[in-house]
Amino acid sequence: MSRRRSAPWIHRWSRQLIGAIAILGALDTAYLTLVELGVFKEAVCPTTGPINCEAVLASEYAKIFGVPLSLFGFLAYVAIAAFAWAPQLLKSSDNKDLRANVENSTWLLIFAGATAMTIFSGYLVYLMSFKIGAFCIYCLASAFFSLSLLVLTLIGRAWEDMGQLFFTGIVVGMIALIGMMGVYASAQQNAGQVAQQGDTSIILPPTGAPKPGVGWEVTTTSGPAEIALARHLKEAGVKEYVAYWCPHCHEQKSLFGKEAYKELNTIECAADAPTGKPEVCKAAGVKGFPSWEINGQMLSGIRTLDELADLTDYQGPRDFKYSLPQR
Fold first, then answer.
1. Residue whose C-alpha is closest to residue 146's, from 232, 62, 241, 80
2. Is 201 helix (H, G, I), strand (E, B) or coil?
3. Whole-angstrom Cα distance, residue 319 to residue 133?
4. Domains of the chain, with CATH numbers?
5. CA separation (Å) from 129 to 51, 134, 151, 304?
6. What's this model's pTM, rounded to 2 decimal places?
7. Contact at 8 Å (CB) between 207 and 192?
8. CB 153 within 8 Å of CB 107
9. Whose CA is closest to 322, among 301, 298, 305?
């Protein structure tokens, strides 16, 4: 009498494991999305050395057309969790064909989604390694979750046609990689330069990776008003706290122009910068970059030159050359 062979434990529990990992990924990316949207002021993560979440989240790669990349990750994880647990909702159904169709189609959807997410995560790890020069622990966790989902999908059931599955994975992977590179190229095409709107020059965010310890080169030039304001701010005891890898700090520099910015009293907070003074920034209570210390108060975020002039009773010329886009 032959005994029926039971299914391997991984086949019995694969969907539950996939769903659980997808929920962890959703929580991870939801937290990053809330940080990006300003619900949380900053991510709980080191800000010095190779692990620097703030450097990653402040980079131009953290958003696509102004939308946090983590939001797309959150939606993808939620979809994977739904696909993983969908057949459970039909357990009591008498329609065996429907249950079988849902079982097979959701496995293919999970495989396609996990493949695309792994490709996306791998590309982001490449960007952190070679473009940003810093890593975010939450982004690395998401990459681990994505890879785990793909592995569990492959070993979590007995696939009948591995050749067809491999071909599908190649196609999905190529579409995901080309699509992501194309989106980033399109999003950055008009960034990192001064845009002209009528008679106004608009400062846009920088592109590419900051030069280690230095940041991006300031290409804007200063007029007499910018230089006069910078000298006034220094005489008034105003201090600016910056980090070389911070895009908003570069925008702030560009508003002044390279000549005027040299007149300011700036303090570099990045520990890996040659002039970095992280202990001074910590003692001052700096929470974000750039931060301005004016009349004993700490103001975080990029400021227009008119704002700085108003805050310090500047009486000089105000025909400033540059402005910020409406945010």
1. 80
2. strand
3. 38
4. 9-188 (1.20.1440.130), 194-323 (3.40.30.10)
5. 11, 7, 24, 33
6. 0.63
7. yes
8. yes
9. 305
